[in-house]
Design brief:
Radius of gyration: 17 Å
Largest sheet: 4 strands, mixed
Helix content: 40-55%
Distance between the termini: 20 Å
Structural class: alpha+beta
Oligomer: single chain
Shape: globular
Length: 216
């Protein structure tokens, strides 16, 4: 199998944590995609993923799977022993509910802020981020506020349980953790007023699958 991504970026980090948690890292060939040169917006990459984002999982039979949650589902269930996406109907429902919230309120929100209200990844990619839109910076800043509200929400969740979906570490935690990594890159960190979220972040950072993931 191959993963088309770029090391050190938030969405690729999500999958690299999954690989480490599942003990699959050594079975993967990593193919670097140059995001700074907007390689993921060119036709050769779009043939693999029409939405033009990384990561993309390439199976040995030539099938391409994109979207981090879909890749996670595939990798987590390869051995028939899922540990990140749930086993019972209730677990699956809770995990996917919180995963959706982490996507919407955290990783997507900080990504919109990064690409629209800051220089983002530079000039080559700006052409694909609505540079002609007069309100793009305002849109980015509104999403930063959404991200901050999301942090407060997840702090309230973690004040009563160890992980986002309950008692077990899941893909929802991976998504939220990588969103915080992205936020820290633009100097947005967990404030002291959110102690449960800060404590959770510190605990997750010490997990072997997080601490020893590839591509850091």
């Amino acid at each position: 199998m191959k993963i088309h991504d770029i090391p050190g970026f938030p969405n690729p980090a999500r999958i690299r944590i999954v690989l480490a948690e599942k003990g699959l890292t050594e079975q993967i060939e990593f193919v670097k995609v140059d995001l700074f040169a907007a390689e993921h917006k060119q036709q050769a990459f779009l043939a693999k993923n029409p939405t033009g984002v990384v990561p993309v999982l390439e199976l040995d039979d030539g099938v391409f799977i994109s979207e981090s949650i879909a890749i996670t589902e595939y990798l987590d269930n390869l051995d028939g022993k899922p540990v990140l996406t749930g086993t019972t109907p209730r677990e699956k429902a809770m995990i996917h509910m919180m995963q959706k919230r982490a996507d919407d309120q955290l990783i997507d929100a900080i990504g919109i802020y990064f690409h629209h209200a800051t220089p983002g990844l530079g000039e080559a990619l700006q052409a694909y981020k609505s540079p002609e839109w007069a309100h793009r910076k305002e849109w980015g800043e509104r999403n930063l506020e959404k991200f901050k509200r999301g942090m407060a929400y997840f702090d309230s969740v973690l004040a009563t349980q160890p992980y986002l979906a309950g008692g077990q570490f899941s893909v929802a935690d991976i998504t939220a953790y990588c969103a915080l990594l992205h936020a820290a890159f633009v100097d947005v960190t967990v404030p002291a007023s959110l102690p449960a979220l800060a404590a959770w972040q510190a605990r997750v950072a010490e997990r072997p699958g997080v601490k020893n993931r590839s591509g850091q």
